Amino acid sequence: MPALRTTGTTARRGVVAAAALPLLIGALASCGYGSEAEKADAPAKANAADAGKPLSASEVRIGYFPNLTHATALVGLQEGLIAKELGATAIKPQSFNAGPSEIEALNGGSLDIGFIGPSPSINGYVKSKGSNLRIISGSASGGVKLVVNPDKIKTLDDLKGKKIATPQKGNTQDVAFLNWISEKGWKVDPESGKGDVSVVRTDNKVTPDAFKQGSIDGAWVPEPTASKLVTDGGSVLLDETDLWPDKKFVITNVIVSQKFLKEHPDVVEAVLKGTVKTNEWINANPDKAKASANAKLAAEGGKPLDAKVIDPAWPSIAITDDPLAATLKTQSEWAVKAKLIEQPDLAGIYDLTLLNKVLKAAGKPEVSDAGLGAK
To answer: Which of 31, 62, 192, 220 is deepest in the core (most CB within 10 A)?
Structure first.
């Protein structure tokens, strides 16, 4: 079994793929995963019933994407590990497909805590002039690849003149790809995507079909979309992890509404206890964690990921409590360079006080905000 890369206090290993849809229920039950989820829920319910002093909010609304890069949310919700820490406070999960819609929900007051990428975090913070969110934890690093049609593109230089998809204008992968293009000395208009490379902004759900139909020649995308493209004949030409010092960069943060953080710090702390314990659980139970994430994806989309997709996708993502704040600063500089945003003032975007409290209590090293913490 291949070892999973580690980041911060967590580790992962390659694991057995989840069963195909027709056998999902039986397969999960036979492997003990269904029963694990039920067992995980039971203590949460008992805790809620037997709780002494209740937390300050009756519910907490948590947003996330149905992506493997949101594995902490997927597994934490599926296994009841976050719910257990909340006791009588109910979780109201909300699934999103794009960062802007999650930021809108947070800013609009219909979401309290969210798992989200660095670029939407930066945009949301800047647009609200630093008033509406805080990054309170990391969640994942890596899991982004450039996958191409090997018949059309054999080397990185072959990308010139080709059509390459990113998930959305200004999203985390879009910014990274525009920066990579710039470093090659090529020119692309960031608004239209036209230039030496045609950057085609395409929803991750549509990208595999566009690739199979030949309307795009490749894509710079997160998992599991990257591995889906490989099953359709694509070839991984570049793993973004290899472009970063120490092979680490933030792909998923945990953010919170500043209003909710101020009014319900005990609830936020409980959620963070749950995410830290979830990451520990992923480390200690890699086989079950992978199957658990796949079961949650099946519940979200109606079917699990095929083994040919989840097997290569899972080990390319590093689960971490560390927000890798220095890499977020770099990504913001790339967005400025691409003229997607003006120079942002990110002072105060992080508040890692509660996370570091939880980590210290668990005997784990504290993490840094790279000088961007709330005063």
So the answer is: 220
265-284 vs 353-361: helix crossing angle, rounded to 10 = 50
Pinpoint the alpha helices (H) of the chain.
24-31, 33-50, 71-78, 81-86, 99-108, 118-127, 172-183, 207-213, 225-231, 258-263, 265-284, 286-301, 307-313, 325-337, 353-361
Beta-bridge partner residues of 6: 11
State residue 12's pLDDT score.
Answer: 37
- Helical packing angle, 118-127 and 99-108, nearest 10°: 40
Q: DSSP characters for 309-373?
A: HHHHHGGGEEE-S---HHHHHHHHHHHHHTTSSPPP--TT-B--HHHHHHHHHTT------TT-B
pLDDT band at 283 (very low <50, low <70, confident <90, very high): confident
Q: In this structure, what token pair is assigned to residue 375? A: 């005063």
Q: Considering all CA atoms of the chain, what is the largest pairwise distance in Å, rounded to the nearest integer?
A: 64
What would the mean pLDDT of 159-169 be, rounded to a whole number? Answer: 96
Nearest one of 199, 145, 201 to 168, comparing CA atoms: 201
Contact status, residue 48 vs residue 323, Cβ threshold 8 Å: no
Residues 372 and 157: their CA atoms lie apart, in Å, by: 37
Residues 93, 181: Cα–Cα separation, whole Å: 37
332-367 pLDDT tens trace? 999 999 999 889 999 999 999 999 999 999 999 999
Q: What is the mean pLDDT of residues 205-210?
A: 96
Answer for the pair 122, 349: CB distance below 8 angstroms, yes or no. Answer: yes
Tokens of 24: 């999902």
pLDDT in tens, 253-273: 999 999 999 999 999 999 999
Can you tell me the distance from the alpha carbon of 199 to that of 128, in angstroms, rounded to the nearest whole number? 28
Cα atoms in the Cβ-side hemisphere of radius 13 Å centred on 306: 9
For the chain, the average pLDDT equals 87
Cβ contacts of residue 243 below 8 Å, gap of 6+? 176, 180
Beta bridge partners of 350: 135, 373
Per-residue pLDDT reduced to its tens digit, 175-194:
999 999 999 999 999 999 99
Give the span between the Cα atoms of 177 and 182, in whole angstroms. 9
Token digits of residue 280:
């520990």
